[in-house]
């Protein structure tokens, strides 16, 4: 096995072996982009390391020595040479980017002797000792596990002693003194900073591998579903310095605007700085181009103006990379004494808006074909694209303005620590996390908050990158506010916002707004519409929507649904006068009383159906009969019970008793679904009458109505037969009364294991199946969806689960039942139509399964219709053969 | 198709066609027992009747005419002849006996003309008119649907008018007058009593068929799982009269004592009476033999004494029937003017005690072999046999004594109407139903009561038969009490027992006792022990017990279990000091606190295990780790919370908050089972330590201990792997500490659909599976066991279900998962042991399935161990090939 690849030996397709960063460096080297020479130790080596009790494989040293010699020859420098020393960086790099999660060590190769060579070589003693003291600090911290704070304290004390305020005011002598102090700190811990550069190198390599399993990396992997067993590669690269004086600089850039997708070069840089300075967001960076400077109203000089030659060279690199990778690239560059180096290129994180625009533009530009665009499009982007926006017409009180780091609007109570954000999440209270700046330790807090606001940092700062990845609205670099952790508040001029007060972030404009604010739905951009048009050319499965109201139906139709796959009638039972009639129905003691109350509900349900049928003109509408347990409609609190009693003119004890009788130990497994319709056929009768009267009347208006009646929670054929009879009877009656024969279907939810197990019997009485995977997941796992979050947390922590089966279908268990249900169902009824209408119908991974399982359609919430269209197309392309 | 069988054309194996009663009559005719000639119209004819909109098949009339002619020839009488008329009875008779549920009409063939022939033939005008008026009453009631009460009122009025008290005081003229009055009643309803005997006959036949679907028959079928589609046969038979003077009598007899099984002839009879008089329990009947008379301390003359010739003839019939049917027979006989007829024979209902004794005796007598006995034994009998008895040493206050109609002890509050019994059952309040006498309408009330007490009626009265069938303790003919329905009380001398007061019935001795009384477990009779010994010679599956306490374990071992298949550890968490320690554990905020509390529980659990291991010396004990949600251990009521807070020295708000946090919407699908052990491995650790320390210490006492650890609610292999590691770690630690290596197994419950679906994966980490069919039924159906009774009632009423899937395994659905689980499990782990430990492990029908599915063992509650042994043997014999 080959453990080591010299840059250029590998290529961009070797991410699994070289990691994402490594693959990029190899590829760039191949296509003659100026990359500082280096080599990659493979991810397999890391896996070996953990499997063999933290020991490196035998042949590794020889391979490293080998490539190191080649690099030395190329650079004309020697690693450890006191005259002309080569310095190295060691960096992690896994298959997918895990920004800031693992460790990096710079300036390796320096010691009391080689630092002399560096001084000689650069003529800058101060710089050389600064490099050296940074190495000792990083090495002590990363390899030896000593807190970075200890070194910082020593630095601060020295500054006090010398009476200076800034690091830059320290003389080279003082920095040299600092290297001794730092080495002393390491001594204190019974360790010694290694003099031998090779010892330094191997210490750093092991530390990078170990950092794969540090706590924050584990946490990040869990949140992002990255497998433990991938391991990280380790990139060893020649050091170049962006802080080697006036003719040096460092920066990051995106080949297109990652926020909007506009085809303009976009980036940030700092003169005379190291790369870390930009990413850490400690200094506010300069804009890349003049255009950008104007746009962002920055007072800082652009690269285009300050270093026009480097800027031109960089735009050349940009073009080359885009043509080569056919994707938005995120690059890091450094100019050392006038010579430009590209340190990294990778697929750039982007907003959903940008993702769509870039993909569609690239089709127009001839860089990609439609199929490529579809396959490359992350369905998650579309979710985010459909984030709500703040209503532009709303009058808002703007507290401050920062950088628009991740779009969407978020409202919540202000909290100041990640731990508080987690607590709020547990209480289901939306919150906004406000920080001076964020660090990798904050990930869980960011995941728990609705949005993030930071006082410091740029668009590529930690907070910005993480929030974009999660699709959370985020505003960064809002320097006009001052965050006061001690008193849990932040101030802007004379405005004070305390913990618990509500603010709204507009991640698209960077606005921080007082209180809650009216929001509007996201609307389609032309590019988005175009992209979805592409998907329809490729997909096989239909995409229906779960919509209960005319409004939902409208939205779904706008988003391109091909019908309503689940219309829940119970939602129509709440609200205004209806709930009173529903309660009368529930409190009825006799069939007669119940029918009287139902007669009051009938016209209201009918009106709802009429409106929905009108909106869905020409498309099928699957209406599910009453599903939830009746006690859900009754009040629980004493006060509400008393009020209801007054309104209904009964003793409140009557209502209390009825609530008691109807209450259940496990309502999810209780008297609901078709069990209600069987116990009280008059409820089904009323609903079916409402459906068919509504359909007849809308047909008379000249519209096309295709109603389908769906019976919930069926566990055996006889239940369906029972309800089917009721539906057919009433449909026949209405047809006679209205003089219209309507074509309709009767089907059932398959949402109990027993329904899937006996699907062959059930299919005999069903025109269609719709898998209710929410309930099916509950019963297959024995997990209550309402209580599950408590278990999921512990299960993810212990590595028992790595995803939420209520979000993404459990293919091994629930999927097995679905396959069984389809197979048995179609066997006994070849004409059976089969769909899915659980949450999973809008989840791309689950949709992929649905394609393989041969479902006819998926049905999902209106806002997920576009995602489903994309995912269905992707799945079809994936399994085309 | 042949619709009609002349008696003797069919035989005893044709019950499906001829019904039970019919098959008996045919068989008796074949073996020359004196049966009044007649014929049977098949059950298929009844099925035809209902399928064709209540019309009889075309060829039927011809067939009936045909056999009727043969009967007329044999009897030398003609149906409808005015000179020497043949009279007929028409009776229902389905495959299994449904006593009193369907209709009967007697004396068919009488009208104004033929009654003259009857007078001439019998010389008894009064008798003839009495027959005639009874026919009109029955016909009006059964065929024409007029209330029997109307006829009774007319009779009462006539008696008042004539100034007499008893029916027998009415003269033949008055009875003749009564026939006119009765016909007038029928006229009032716009109908006419048919003069034509053939018209009478066909009316009666249709009425008998129709009675299959009357309300009480439907109710009885539901309670007894008798399919709707069986239909009833209709037996038409020559009338013989036990009320034709002094030389006539009628009676019923059992070939052995149906209460004790003793091999003595046992029966009751009434001189000069019709059969109905005995069954209805209106007159107290005479004993059959002298021995019986003495035993029952009856003041009435025995048949043996009064009609010695008939008695001898009857004992001959008894012997012939027993040899022929090889079973206890229940016969009806009538002597008409000195000539003995057998009207019916059927397998006699018996007490469980009798069933066992008779079966075992018959093996000794050479009538049956062991296999036949096993196959014939109703496992339900064994349940009843294990009914508790009143402690003979208990001091009891006897209120009264009646006939011991159905054994067992029952305690409950007195109610006087079947409706009240049903209400009490709904409230889960045990009750005793007290009635003057019972009628078929009372079935639901009897089913709801713990026991039944009647003032009137004999051992074969309705109440007695029904209660025996249901296994309910029952005392009948307790004539010393007087029941007062109006004031809802009964009196005996100066004792008054009011509604709601508690009494205890001793169905084995006939005692009615004041209040609640100490009871003892049923013990094995020598015959019972012998029978169970037979079963062990045949069965393949092991029978284990579900036992949580040393006491349960002792009982189970006495009943012949081969180990403990389920020892639930949580039951040990309740009681005394333990619950406090458990609550401390639950309220712990940190792992340390939790461990401290667990350390207090450890010695208590260990002691329990030690005692159980000692009892089960040499047999395996499967111990399940903690299963229920933790909040089950916390108090719910405010007062208890306050008390706990005081004891634990915390604010009650702390406990309230913890209860709130731990509460779940659907606890059955919540944080329980292995989910607890995964979240808090220290709980599993403590339990495993208790198990292995206990095992080591008991082994050191010289006993053999075979512990098996079972992990509950596993849904995926990784959960089991997680808990398996904990078990192995602790077992290893204890082995080291104790210096004893114990052979043990680790297995899992399969109680979630997902566990069955992924059994191939789970089996890789399991030494055994135990199907937890209670939970598996809940999740497969989506039924909460705690709430299910409300649904079941409606489902049985609507014909959606005909059994309780929590009692008897749902083979189609749950069974499919079990088969899948076994198959997949054994495929990946051929050594896998597979058992079942849900309620179903003690249910004979479910055990039959377990045999077919290839399970290694069943585990059930201690009291069901004998039933399981029998059912397992039966299943093995059934599927031997």
Determine the most extensive contact between two protein chains.
Answer: A-B, 47 and 47 residues
Strand content of chain A: 15-25%
Task: Give me the side-by-side strand order of the main sheet of chain A.
Answer: 14-24-23-16-17-18-19-15
What would you report as the Rg of chain A, rounded to the nearest angstrom? 32 Å
What integer is the average pLDDT of chain A? 90
Return residue spans of chain A where pLDDT drops below 50 for at least 5 consecutive residues: none
Question: Any key phrases for this structure?
Answer:
881 residues, homodimer, eight-stranded parallel β-barrel, alpha/beta, 17% strand, eight-stranded mixed sheet
What does this structure look like?
- 2 copies of one chain form a homodimer.
- Chain A is of the alpha/beta class.
- In chain A, the strands form 7 sheets. In chain A, strands 14-24-23-16-17-18-19-15 form an 8-stranded mixed sheet. In chain A, strands 26-27-28-29-30-31-32-33 form an 8-stranded parallel β-barrel, surrounded by 5 helices.
- In chain A, helix 18 (443-448) links the parallel strand 17 and strand 18.
- The longest helix of chain A is centred in the C-terminal third of the chain and has 25 residues, at 591-615.
- The radius of gyration of chain A is 32 Å and the shape is elongated.
- The two termini of chain A are 34 Å apart.
- The relative contact order of chain A is 0.06.
- The mean pLDDT of chain A is 90.
- At the A-B interface, helix 26, helix 28, helix 29, helix 31 and helix 32 of A face helix 26, helix 28, helix 29, helix 31 and helix 32 of B.
């Amino acid at each position: 096995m080959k453990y080591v690849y010299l840059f250029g030996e590998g290529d961009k397709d070797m991410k699994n072996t070289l990691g994402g960063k490594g693959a990029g460096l190899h590829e760039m080297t191949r296509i003659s982009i100026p990359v500082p020479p280096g080599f990659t130790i493979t991810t397999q080596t890391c896996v070996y390391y953990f499997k063999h009790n933290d020991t490196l494989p035998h042949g590794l040293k020889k391979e490293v020595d080998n490539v190191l010699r080649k690099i030395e020859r190329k650079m004309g420098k020697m690693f450890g040479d006191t005259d002309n020393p080569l310095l190295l960086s060691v960096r992690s790099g896994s298959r997918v980017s895990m920004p800031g999660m693992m460790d990096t060590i710079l300036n390796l190769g320096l010691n009391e002797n080689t630092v002399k060579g560096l001084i000689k070589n650069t003529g800058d003693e101060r710089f050389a000792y600064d490099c050296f003291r940074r190495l000792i600090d990083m090495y002590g911290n990363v390899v030896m596990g000593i807190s970075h704070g200890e070194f910082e304290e020593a630095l601060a004390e020295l500054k006090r002693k010398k009476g200076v305020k800034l690091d830059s005011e320290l003389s080279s002598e003082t920095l040299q003194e600092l290297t001794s102090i730092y080495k002393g700190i390491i001594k204190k811990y019974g360790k010694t900073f290694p003099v031998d550069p090779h010892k330094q190198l191997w210490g750093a390599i092991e530390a990078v591998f170990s950092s794969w399993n540090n706590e924050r990396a584990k946490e990040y992997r869990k949140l992002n579903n990255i497998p433990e067993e991938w391991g990280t590669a380790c990139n060893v690269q020649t050091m170049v310095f962006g802080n080697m004086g006036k003719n040096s600089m460092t920066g990051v850039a995106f080949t297109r605007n990652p926020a909007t997708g506009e085809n303009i070069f976009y980036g940030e840089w700092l003169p005379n700085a190291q790369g870390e300075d930009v990413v850490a967001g400690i200094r506010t960076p300069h804009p890349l181009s003049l255009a950008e400077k104007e746009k962002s109203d920055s007072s800082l000089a652009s690269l285009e103006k300050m270093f026009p030659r480097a800027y031109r060279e960089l735009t050349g690199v940009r073009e080359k990379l885009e043509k080569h990778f056919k994707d938005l690239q995120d690059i890091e560059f450094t100019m050392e004494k006038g010579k430009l180096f590209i340190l990294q290129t990778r697929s750039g994180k982007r907003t959903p808006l940008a993702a769509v625009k870039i993909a569609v533009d690239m089709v127009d530009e001839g860089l990609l074909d439609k199929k490529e665009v579809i396959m490359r499009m992350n369905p998650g982007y579309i979710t985010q694209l459909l984030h709500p926006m703040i209503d532009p017409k709303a009058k808002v009180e703007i507290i401050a303005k920062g950088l628009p780091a991740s779009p969407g609007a978020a409202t919540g109570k202000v909290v100041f620590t990640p731990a508080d954000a987690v607590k709020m999440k547990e209480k289901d209270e939306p919150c906004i996390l406000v920080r001076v700046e964020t660090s990798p330790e904050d990930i869980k807090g960011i995941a728990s908050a609705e949005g993030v606001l930071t006082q410091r940092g740029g668009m590529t700062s930690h907070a910005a990158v993480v929030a974009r990845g999660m699709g959370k609205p985020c505003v960064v670099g809002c320097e006009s506010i001052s965050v006061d952790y001690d008193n849990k508040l932040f101030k802007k001029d004379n405005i004070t916002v305390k913990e618990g007060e509500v603010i709204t972030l507009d991640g698209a404009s960077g606005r921080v707004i007082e209180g809650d604010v009216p929001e509007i739905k996201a609307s389609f951009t032309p590019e988005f519409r175009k992209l979805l048009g592409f998907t329809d050319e490729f997909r096989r499965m239909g995409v229906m929507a779960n919509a209960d109201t005319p409004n939902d139906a409208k939205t779904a139709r706008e988003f391109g649904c091909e019908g309503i796959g689940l219309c829940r009638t119970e939602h129509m039972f709440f609200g205004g006068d209806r709930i009173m009639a529903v309660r009368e129905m529930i409190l009825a003691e006799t069939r007669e009383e119940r029918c009287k109350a139902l007669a009051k509900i009938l016209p209201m349900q009918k009106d709802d159906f009429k409106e929905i049928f009108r909106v869905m003109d020409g498309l099928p509408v699957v209406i599910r009969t009453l599903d939830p347990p009746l006690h859900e409609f009754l009040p629980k609190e004493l006060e509400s019970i008393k009020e209801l009693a007054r309104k209904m003119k009964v003793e409140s004890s009557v209502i209390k008793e009825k609530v008691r009788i109807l209450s259940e130990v496990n309502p999810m497994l209780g008297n609901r679904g078709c069990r209600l319709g069987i116990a009280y056929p008059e409820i089904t009768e009323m609903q079916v009458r409402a459906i068919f009267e509504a359909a007849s009347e809308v047909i008379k208006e000249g519209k096309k109505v295709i109603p389908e009646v769906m019976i919930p929670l069926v566990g055996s054929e006889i239940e369906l037969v029972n309800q089917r009879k009721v539906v057919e009877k009433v449909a026949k009656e209405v047809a006679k009364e209205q003089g219209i024969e309507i074509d309709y279907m009767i089907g059932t939810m398959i949402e109990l294991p027993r329904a899937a197990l006996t699907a062959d019997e059930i299919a005999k009485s069903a025109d269609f199946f719709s898998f209710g995977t929410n309930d099916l997941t509950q019963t297959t796992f024995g997990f209550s969806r309402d209580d599950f979050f408590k278990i999921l947390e512990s299960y993810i922590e212990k590595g028992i689960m790595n995803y939420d089966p209520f979000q993404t279908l459990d293919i091994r268990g629930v999927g097995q039942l679905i396959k069984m249900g389809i197979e048995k169902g179609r066997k006994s009824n070849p004409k059976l139509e089969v769909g899915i209408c659980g949450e999973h119908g809008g989840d791309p991974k689950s949709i992929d399964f649905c394609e393989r399982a041969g479902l006819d359609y998926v049905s999902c919430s209106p806002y997920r219709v576009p995602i489903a269209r994309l995912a269905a197309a992707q799945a079809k392309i994936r399994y085309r053969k």
